[in-house]
C-alpha cells in the first residue's frame, strides 16, 4: 500500500469525522440552554402517557415556558410524526415514545430525530448522545384474580397456554400495542427460549415437543391457539380478569400501573414478581426525542434533560411500575428496578429489529 493511498485514506477519515461531528447540534452549557429555551418561549410535547400532562405543567412553572401537550396513542403518534417529518412540516418539538422497534424504524433510521449531545446526562444514561434519551422504564406484568386462589398462585408462565385453562388469558391486541409485540419477540431469543423450555419441563413434567424454532415461538403459538382474549386496552384486560364473583381464575398481561386502580374499580388483582418462572413481566424503555426541524429545539433539549431531574420526575413519583433512568429518583413500587430485573424480560433493540417482523407474521397467521 503506497503513501499516496494512505494519505488519501487519512484525508477521507478526517472528512468523515468532521461530517459526523457536524451532524450533531452544538452542545450548550446549562445556563445558556435555559436562556435559549426561554427565548423560544414555547414547547410542543406529545406522548401516550397522560402523566406527561402533569409534567408539562411543572415545567411551565419552573421555567416560564408555555407547553402545549398533545396526548396521543403510540401508534397514531409515531405515524403522524413520521408523516410530518417526511413532509418537512414538523409541528412537535419533543415526542415521548415507547415502542423500540417503531422508534428505531420510523424515527431514528430515517433521520427524523435531532442529533445532539448532552455531556451532563452521560453519568445517568451512559452516553452523551441525546438523540433518543431513555428517561424511564415502564413495566407490564402477568397478573391474576386472587379471589379464588389467594396469593403466590401464578408460579409458571406456561399457565397462559395450558389447554386445561383454555380461554382464561387476556391482553391488549398487539396489533395496536407495539410493546406487546416487542415482549413476545424477546421471548423468542435463544436465552429466553431456553428458560421457557426449562419452565415447560417444570410445569408439564415433560420435555417440550417443538413445532416451531424454540420454546419462545412455541409459547406464542400455543397461547393464541388456546383461545386468548384480545382487548382494546390494558384497562379492559384488567377489569376482565379482576371482576369479583367469577368461578374461574383469569390471567392477564397489562400495565403494572393497573394494580393500584383495583380499589377504585372494585376488582381483584395480584402478581408475584419473584414467583413466576421464568418471567413475571416485561420492562421497556421510554424515549424522549427532539424532532429534527422542530420550531423550539432548545426548549425541547431543556425538557429532555429536565425529565431526568428530581423535578422532572416529580409527576411520575406515584406512577406505579415506572422507574426513572436516574436511579436517584423515587419509585412507587415496594421494590426497585434493580430488584425486579432478574425476574422479567428486558428489551434488546438489535434483536427486535432483526426478529419482530417474523413474529408479526406468525401472529397474523394465528388470528
Quick overview:
The chain has 367 residues and is of the alpha/beta class. It has helices at residues 3-22, 30-40, 51-63, 74-86, 100-108, 122-125, 178-187, 190-204, 215-225, 234-242, 262-265, 297-307, 310-313, 337-340, 349-366, and strands at residues 42-47, 66-71, 94-97, 133-144, 169-172, 229-231, 251-255, 281-290, 323-324, 345-346. It starts with a helix and ends with a helix.
Question: Would you mind describing this structure in some detail?
Answer:
With 367 residues, the protein is α/β, with parallel strands linked by helices. Helices cover 43% and strands 15% of the residues. The protein has 15 helices and ten strands. Strands 1, 2, 3, 4, 5, 6, 7, 8, 9 and 10 form a ten-stranded mixed beta sheet that branches. Helix 3 (51-63) links the parallel strand 1 (42-47) and strand 2. Mean pLDDT is 93; it is low at 1-22.
Describe the structure using short key phrases.
alpha/beta; D-Maltodextrin-Binding Protein, domain 2; 10 strands; disordered N terminus
Please describe the topology of this protein.
Layout: H1 3-22, H2 30-40, E1 42-47, H3 51-63, E2 66-71, H4 74-86, E3 94-97, H5 100-108, H6 122-125, E4 133-144, E5 169-172, H7 178-187, H8 190-204, H9 215-225, E6 229-231, H10 234-242, E7 251-255, H11 262-265, E8 281-290, H12 297-307, H13 310-313, E9 323-324, H14 337-340, E10 345-346, H15 349-366
Parallel strand pairs: 1-2, 1-3, 5-6, 5-7, 8-10
Antiparallel strand pairs: 3-8, 4-7, 4-8, 4-9
Helix pairs in contact: 2-12, 4-5, 5-15, 7-9, 7-15, 8-9, 9-15
Amino acid at each position: 500500500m503506497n503513501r499516496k493511498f494512505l494519505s488519501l485514506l487519512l484525508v477521507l477519515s478526517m472528512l468523515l469525522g468532521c461530517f459526523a461531528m457536524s451532524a450533531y447540534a452544538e452542545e450548550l452549557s446549562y445556563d445558556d440552554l435555559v436562556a435559549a429555551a426561554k427565548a423560544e418561549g414555547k414547547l410542543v410535547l406529545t406522548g401516550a402517557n397522560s402523566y406527561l400532562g402533569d409534567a408539562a405543567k411543572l415545567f411551565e412553572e419552573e421555567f416560564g415556558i408555555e407547553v402545549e401537550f398533545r396526548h396521543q396513542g403510540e401508534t397514531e403518534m409515531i405515524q403522524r410524526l413520521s408523516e410530518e417529518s417526511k413532509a418537512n412540516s414538523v409541528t412537535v418539538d419533543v415526542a415521548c415514545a415507547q415502542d423500540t422497534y417503531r422508534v428505531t424504524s420510523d424515527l431514528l433510521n430515517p433521520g427524523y430525530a435531532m442529533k445532539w449531545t448532552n455531556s451532563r446526562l452521560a453519568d445517568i444514561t451512559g452516553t452523551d448522545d441525546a438523540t433518543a434519551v431513555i428517561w424511564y422504564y415502564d413495566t407490564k406484568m402477568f397478573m391474576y384474580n386472587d379471589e379464588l386462589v389467594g396469593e403466590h398462585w401464578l408460579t409458571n408462565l406456561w399457565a397462559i397456554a395450558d389447554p386445561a385453562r383454555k380461554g382464561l388469558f387476556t391482553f391488549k391486541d398487539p396489533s395496536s400495542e407495539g410493546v406487546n409485540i416487542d415482549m413476545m419477540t424477546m421471548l423468542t431469543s435463544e436465552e429466553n427460549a431456553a428458560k421457557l423450555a426449562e419452565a415447560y419441563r417444570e410445569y408439564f413434567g415433560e420435555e417440550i415437543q417443538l413445532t416451531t424454532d424454540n420454546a419462545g415461538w412455541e409459547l406464542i403459538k400455543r397461547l393464541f391457539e388456546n383461545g386468548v382474549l384480545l382487548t382494546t386496552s390494558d384497562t379492559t384486560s384488567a377489569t376482565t380478569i379482576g371482576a369479583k364473583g367469577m368461578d374461574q381464575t383469569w390471567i392477564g398481561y397489562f400495565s403494572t400501573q393497573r394494580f393500584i386502580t383495583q380499589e377504585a374499580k372494585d376488582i381483584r388483582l395480584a402478581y408475584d414478581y419473584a414467583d413466576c418462572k421464568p418471567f413475571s413481566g416485561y420492562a421497556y424503555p421510554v424515549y424522549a426525542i427532539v424532532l429534527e426541524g422542530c420550531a423550539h429545539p432548545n426548549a425541547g433539549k431543556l425538557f429532555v434533560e429536565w425529565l431526568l431531574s428530581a423535578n422532572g420526575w416529580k409527576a411520575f413519583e406515584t406512577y406505579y411500575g415506572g422507574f426513572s433512568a436516574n436511579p436517584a429518583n423515587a419509585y412507587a413500587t415496594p421494590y426497585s428496578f434493580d430488584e425486579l430485573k432478574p425476574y422479567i424480560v428486558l428489551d434488546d433493540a438489535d434483536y427486535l429489529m432483526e426478529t419482530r417482523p417474523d413474529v408479526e407474521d406468525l401472529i397474523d397467521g394465528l388470528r
